[in-house]
Design brief:
The protein has 2 domains: 165 residues, P-loop containing nucleotide triphosphate hydrolases (Rossmann fold); 105 residues, K homology (KH) domain (GMP Synthetase, Chain A, domain 3), CATH 3.30.300. With 299 residues, the protein is an alpha/beta fold. A 6-stranded mixed beta sheet has the order 2-3-1-4-5-6, with helices on both faces. A 3-stranded mixed beta sheet has the order 7-8-9. It is built from 9 helices and 9 strands.
Length: 299
C-alpha cells in the first residue's frame, strides 16, 4: 500500500484577487464567502481536499493591505502567520492588474520563505494571451518562484495542473481530518460567515467593513427545526437603519438568502432569527474583536 501524503497550503495575495473563489473551487463546496468588496475574508479559513492517498488543507488568508484599525492589524497578522506554518505557498495575483506596491510587499516577505512558493496568475480569462507572457516575466524577475501557473478560479481553467503540482509537494503524513470534512471551522463560524456574505452582497458601500455577525445560539427543540439566533453588529445607527431597511424589508431578504445557503450546508431545514446591534467603533476595541471571533493564534 502506498504511503499517505498530507500537508498545508497557504493562499496569499492582496485583497480581492480571487483566493476565496479558488478555495471553494478546489474543495468543491462553499467554505469561504465571496464578494467583490475587498477584505471579505477576515480569519484564516481552511478548506480540506481528501483523496485515497492524500489530504491537502488549504488555508485562505485575509488579503494583505495597509491596516487602518485593530481589525486590519489582526487580518494582516493572520495572513503572515499562515506563511510560517505551511508546506507550500500559493501567491495569487490577478492577470488584469499590474504589479503594485502591495504585491512587492508580499514578495519581500516570501523571499525569506523556507517552502516552495508558486505564482498563481488568476483571472486569465480577462486578458488576451499575448499580455500574459510579459506579465509573468515581470513577476519572475522579482523572485525565483518554484513554478508559475496561470488559472481562472471562476471558470476552473488549469486547476488540475495546480492540484497536481501541490499534491506532488505534500510530505508523507497522517490524515488530519475525516475524509468527508471540508472545513475545520465549527458550524457557528460558517453560519455567521454566510449571513455576513449576504449583508455584503445586499447593502451599500458604507456598511460592509463595519459588519460582524455573531451566532448566539443553535438549538433544536424536540420535533422542531433547528433554531439559529444571530446578531448583526454594526458601528453606527445609520448602518443599522440600512440593514433593517424600510419596514424590516432588507433584514428579511438577508435572512431569506442566508437561510438557503445555511440549509444547503447543514443539510436540514432551519429557522433563522436575525437582529441588528450597534456597537460603536468595535473594530478598534480588543474586547469586541475577541467577542466577535477575531482572536490571534496562540502560537
Amino acid at each position: 500500500m502506498s504511503e499517505f501524503h498530507s500537508g498545508f497550503v497557504a493562499l496569499i495575495g492582496r485583497p480581492n484577487v480571487g483566493k476565496s473563489t479558488l478555495l471553494n473551487q478546489l474543495v468543491g463546496e462553499k467554505v469561504a464567502i465571496m464578494s467583490d468588496k475587498a477584505q471579505t475574508t477576515r480569519n484564516k479559513i481552511q478548506g480540506i481536499y481528501t483523496t485515497e492517498d492524500s489530504q491537502i488543507v488549504f488555508v485562505d488568508t485575509p488579503g494583505i493591505h495597509k491596516p487602518r484599525n485593530q481589525l486590519g492589524d489582526f487580518m494582516v497578522d493572520m495572513a503572515y502567520s499562515a506563511i510560517r506554518e505551511v508546506d507550500v505557498i500559493l501567491f495569487m495575483v490577478p492577470a488584469d492588474q499590474k504589479r503594485g506596491t502591495g504585491d512587492d510587499l508580499i514578495i519581500e516577505r516570501l523571499k525569506n520563505s523556507d517552502v516552495p512558493v508558486y505564482l498563481i496568475v488568476n483571472k486569465i480569462d480577462r486578458v488576451h494571451p499575448d499580455q500574459l507572457l510579459p506579465f509573468i516575466e515581470d513577476y519572475s524577475k522579482q523572485m525565483d518562484f518554484k513554478e508559475v501557473i496561470p488559472i481562472s478560479a471562476t471558470n476552473g481553467n488549469n486547476l488540475e495542473t495546480l492540484m497536481e503540482a501541490v499534491t506532488a509537494e505534500m510530505p508523507v503524513g497522517p490524515q488530519f481530518y475525516p475524509e468527508d470534512q471540508i472545513t475545520d471551522h465549527p458550524e457557528y463560524f460558517v453560519v455567521s460567515e454566510l449571513v455576513r456574505e449576504k449583508v455584503l452582497l445586499l447593502t451599500r458601500d458604507e456598511v460592509p467593513h463595519s459588519v460582524a455577525v455573531v451566532v448566539e445560539s443553535m438549538k433544536k427543540p424536540e420535533g422542531e427545526k433547528l433554531h439559529i439566533r444571530a446578531a448583526i453588529i454594526v458601528e453606527r445607527d445609520s448602518q443599522k437603519g440600512i440593514i433593517i431597511g424600510k419596514g424590516g424589508k432588507m433584514l428579511r431578504i438577508i435572512g431569506q438568502k442566508a437561510r438557503v445557503d445555511i440549509e444547503h450546508m447543514l443539510g436540514e431545514k432551519i429557522y433563522l432569527e436575525l437582529w441588528v446591534k450597534v456597537q460603536k467603533d468595535w473594530r478598534d476595541k480588543k474586547v469586541n474583536l475577541q467577542d466577535f471571533g477575531y482572536k490571534k493564534d496562540e502560537y
